[in-house]
Amino acid sequence: MHHSVVYASARPSSVSGRWFRQLGVVCRLNSILLVRYWKAAILQAVLLPLLVVGIVFGVQNAYVADNGLVTSADNTVVTWKMDGIHQCKPEPLSNACMTIVYAPQDAETTQIMNYFQTQNQARTGSALTVETNAWDSMSVPKNDMGIVPMASDQFIYDYALANPDTIQLGVVFTKETPAGGPIHWNYQIYYNMTHATNISTIPGFKYTKEAGYNRISSNDDSYGTLLPNMVRALDESLLTFLDPQHTQASLDYSLKSFPKASTKNGYSSKDDITTMLSNLMALPACITMVMAMLRITREKEMKCKESMQMMGLGPVAYWTGQWLTAWIMALVQGSVMMALGYAFKMDFFTNTNGLVIWLMFVLLTYSMTIFGFLLTTFCQKTGSSLGFGFAVVVAVLIVVPMMASGTWLDLYVDRSNGIPSDSPPPLNTYWIASFFFPFIHFGRLWSQISTLTLGTISGGSNPTVPAGTYIPGPGFHLSNLTNYDVGYPSIQNILPQPISGLTYQFANVVIAALLTLYLDQIIPNEHGHSRSLFFFLGSIRDAFLFVRHGGKAGVDRQKSVEAQKVTPYEGVPPENEDSDVTAEREKAIHCQSEVAIRISNLTKIYTKNGPGFWKNLYLALCCCCCLKRRRSNKIVNKAVDRLNLITEPNELFALLGQNGAGKSTTMQMLYGVTDPSSGNAYLFNRSIRTDMAQIRSSMGVCPQHDVLFNDLTCWEHLQLYAGIKDLPAEALLESFSKSTPKEAIKENLRERPTWIRSRLEAVQLWKDRHTMAGRLSGGMKRRLSTIISTIGDPQVLILDEPTTGMDPIHRRHVWTFLAQFKRGRSILLTTHSMEEADALGDKVAIMVSGHLKAIGNTTRLKNKFGNGYRVELALGNYIPTVQDPTSLAIVHDSNNNLPSQKQLEQELSEATRAIVPESVLLDQSGGVMVFGIPLQALEKMADLTAMLERAQAQGRIKQWGIAQTSLEEVFLSLIRSAEDRH
Ligand SMILES: Nc1ncnc2c1ncn2[C@@H]1O[C@H](COP(=O)(O)OP(=O)(O)OP(=O)(O)O)[C@@H](O)[C@H]1O
User: Fold this and answer.
1) pLDDT recorded at residue 47
2) Looking at residues 708-719, what average pLDDT do you find?
3) Which of 161, 411, 837, 949 has a CA that sits 20 to 30 A from residue 231's CA?
4) 833: Cβ below 6 Å to ligand 1?
């Protein structure tokens, strides 16, 4: 069955129109893949958020807050190293603090605390001043203070709640005078729980059986000697106070930790939620980033991206498509995170403006994904992108909780000496480095939101709110985005407001996107191809040419002048160069007209340390191109050596050669994935060095290895590439004149574009049009790759071994299609099938070790390099040397005897030589003789055939035939002669 080729060319559209349509194609491709991998999409968008929010919720409820109450009865003190109380300790109370507060302030308690001071100084040398005025404000002290009176137990409680870690110890005295009984003095000590729990992480503390965690130096922790010291010192002071009175008194004491902020649902303080759980909340965004990185790198590794670019897809359209589709996952995942937070009734969510929460999560996923895209520009393999992604996830898990717990302040200000209230401390510059990482902004925003959303426990200072009641935080409103109180007036104006947590992430997106576009161009691919560091100057040059030469026509004229520039052949040609090759070289070098492909002195040298990103960068930084020459690039392989040839329109040029001859390298240079080392090639006067974008829009490529998306059907591949080639919409749809309305509905409108169907049918893939490429056989994939390269009816078609792995039937279908399709265009094809080159090639060239060895049409090659003709004959009747049961007819000589096989062979050999003395007996075995007849004996062929016919009539020959030397023999003899020379 023969199909005539239906053509469909790209529309002559504006650059911007084409760009938008290519963008649509990339978005559509990504959407199809998203739907096809729906399980992974659901996992990222729904299940992961559910998992992390569920874990956070579980942790909240499992966490049992410590109310900090320890009674004196629990204390079984063994042996204590008695010392005293020292001025506020450096850690964790790093800001100005009060060493001891006491209440109430009256004459007796003041007297007791004065005794305390005197005796403590005697023991420790530490002079703790007893303040005379009661501390009545809720603000933090400016300087370290000694013994500070406060109004009441309640005030101490409220103050400690509002200013955690500001007081080291507290003491509240109560004196009861029961009727008839002794006076009862009770004091309750407040100790700092944070101090106690942090103690094991502070260097210098060690655990002893007697004293628990005990610092060897003069400073102690609450559970070590600090509390016993306090108890002993207070007992001593009380006894000193009571002794002169000679009254009987009973003493008692109790211990209690200072209150900690907020306890709700068992889950509590800001510290816990920020340090522990903020990184979990960032995890879904991280996983989405890694998945996106893997998808992009897989497309790169499978060369799908390269293939789309070879077919004309611009890098800006490609990346814009990726950035746009990344929004889908960001929007869904961000919304799901927000919905789950509300569903689990978490304060952080319910107490924050919904828009802020939504933007926070959507932007995190988006900015992380775009950041991941940037990282893929450094990765050629999925393994390396997995490594990069993993490193980022670890960084997020560590850094986000640090930021969220308030460390972000250290990025901006130096807090090592506290924050003075009047003038701002020195500014840190870490924030500049941190600016480029979106997750750092997320951590800071988390910290700022959590300080306003998480509540506290009432200390009971408000009579209408019983102590222990949870008081929600004031909440994070939209206005707080630009109006957030940092808590330190002196640095309020130099610290970023919460809105920058969103705007900086957006800035990260823009910076990462621009860097991705740039690095993607300058980092070399696996063939070492990359654009120059200053490639963008090329557009300026184009614009300059456009103005200078008076528009597009002028530029085209200029380009054709450049394309026809004669570049002399360097060095000496290889030994014994064929005259046709020399002629082709002269023609290619001096060509003065527009041809389809002109290859001029094209050379490719593979080097050990080929062009690399870092080398590029080094060269740019040094700004001296001469260095490039001086650096020794150890030559590994000269794959193509000063190649010169021309192909005309309407011509199918077949390039033959052994494995490694340099065919694919030549093609790769033509379609722009490998840079030539020297020389140039022009396709319709466009240089492969400078005009690859224009060349690609009128070129079709079928690379040596199939480049297909495993998850797209044949049909979708053709649609995808049709979109990249910008085929007009009309070309995608067929009129329904031939179908009945019922058939039309059945067949689905979108399945009947004329040219798609005709091409699928031409290579027998119509029935498999809805099969995923991953499930096609090797030969089917090759057929699909071949027709993909013809999309848009390119002027130049480059086919690298298109029929490899095809069975003979399908190969012939492809040949028929190509023979028809080549009309009006030029096809460059490599093959290892001599039959194919013979059947299709208008011009055939044979390459050996990067050089052209022979060129011409097949008849010329056969005549020039073949051994002339072969005459093959099967002997007739004879007495076989070995019994031959197939001998049927009997021919007798004059004596009625059969000749022997040897006699017959000799007789025929002599007869042949008598007619054609130049003939050579090539083979003689099994009753078959083969003679080689050189071309110069062509005129004697008539006599020879007459003799052979006579011998056949006599029964001496069973059958015979004459054949011209095959292309395969030409190929073999050329290769052999080249090998002999080496
Ligand atoms: N990326 C590379 N780095 C170094 N050498 C290379 C690279 N690619 C190809 N070569 C070398 O260049 C030479 C030409 O290879 P090329 O792939 O062009 O041969 P070919 O004629 O297409 O062979 P085949 O018929 O096997 O496809 C070979 O010696 C090969 O080893």
Assistant:
1) 94
2) 90
3) 161
4) no
Residue range 148-156: mean pLDDT, rounded? 92
674 within ligand 1 shell (Cβ under 6 A): no
Ligand 1 contacts CB of residue 639 (under 6 A): yes
State percent of the chain over pLDDT 70: 79
The confidence score (pLDDT) of residue 502 equals: 95
Closest CA to 168 of 138, 139, 148, 142: 148
Written as one letter, the residue type at 450 is: S
Residues facing residue 170 across a β-bridge: 101, 190
- How high is the pLDDT of residue 327? 95
638: Cβ below 6 Å to ligand 1? Answer: no
Distance 637 CA to ligand 1 centre (A): 9
Report which protein residue has its CA nearest ligand 1's atom 9: 665
Q: What pLDDT sits at residue 456?
A: 63
pLDDT of residue 72: 29
pLDDT in tens, 760-777: 888 889 889 899 999 999
Look at strands 796-800 and 635-647 and give their pairing.
unpaired
- The count of other CB atoms within 10 Å of the CB of residue 617 is 13
| Whether residue 824 has its Cβ less than 6 Å from ligand 1 | no
Pairing of strands 69-70, 249-257: antiparallel
Using CA atoms, how far apart are residues 576 and 652, in angstroms rounded to an integer?
27
Q: Which two tokens stand for residue 193?
A: 């729980």
Instruction: Look at ligand 1, atom 26, and give the residue with the nearest C-alpha.
Output: 659
608 lines ligand 1 (CB under 6 A): no
Query: What's the pLDDT at 666?
Result: 94
- Nearest partner of 451 among 680, 274, 311, judged by Cα: 274
Query: What average pLDDT does this structure show over 699-710?
Result: 90
Per-residue pLDDT of 200-218, as tens digits, reads 444 444 444 444 444 444 4
For residue 637 and ligand 1, the question of a CB distance below 6 A is answered with yes
Predicted model pTM: 0.69
- Residue 155: which residues within 8 A CB-CB, separation 6 or more? 103, 136, 461
Q: pLDDT grade, residue 501 (50/70/90)?
A: very high
Residue to mutate, 637, 828, 832, 848, ligand 1, most ligand atoms under 8 Å from C-beta: 637
Ligand 1 geometric centre to CA of 641 (Å): 13
CA of 598 to the centre of ligand 1 (A): 22
Q: In the structure encoding, which two tokens stand for residue 305, read together?
A: 């991206």
State whether the beta carbon of 527 lies less than 6 angstroms from ligand 1.
yes
Q: Is the CB of 657 under 6 A from ligand 1?
A: yes
Tokens of 572: 């000496």
d(CA 830, CA 703): 10
Whether ligand 1 lies within 6 angstroms of the CB of 171 is answered as no
pLDDT at residue 68, rounded to an integer = 30
* The ligand 1 atom nearest the CA atom of 657: 21
